[in-house]
Amino acid sequence: MIKSLMITAAICLGATTLASAQTVGFSQIGSESGWRAAETTITRQQAEERGIDLKFSDAQQKQENQIAALRSFVAQGVDAILLAPVVATGWDSVLQEAKEAEIPVVLLDRKVDSDESLYLTAVGSDLVHEGEVAGQWLVDNAGEGECRIVELQGTTGSSPAIDRAQGFRNAIEGKDNLEIVRSQTGDFTRTGGKEVMESFLQAENGGKDICALYAHNDDMAIGAIQAIKEAGLKPGEDIKIVSIDAVPDIFQAMAAGEANATVELTPNMAGPAFDALEAYRNDGTEPKKFIQTESKLYTQNDDPQEQYEARKDLGY
Amino acid sequence: MFRSLSRIAPQLITLGAIVLLVTAFFPDFILIGYERERLVGPIIDVLKRGAPVALLAIGMTLVIATRGIDLSVGTVMAISGAIGAWAISSGLGLAPTLALAIGAGLLCGLWNGCLVAVIGIQPIVATLILMTSGRGIAQLITEGRILTFSDPSFAFFGSGTLFGMPFPAVLWVLLALVVTLLMRRTALGILVEAIGVNRSASALAGVNARVLLIAVYMAAGLCAAFAGIVATADIRGADANNTGLWLELDAILAVVIGGNSLLGGRFSIAASVIGAMIIQTIDTGILLAGFPSEYNLVIKAGLVLIILVVQSPNLAQSWRFVKDESRRRRERSYEARKELRS
Question: Which of A128, B63, B131, B185 has its CA 20 to 30 A from that of A309?
Answer without folding.
Answer: A128
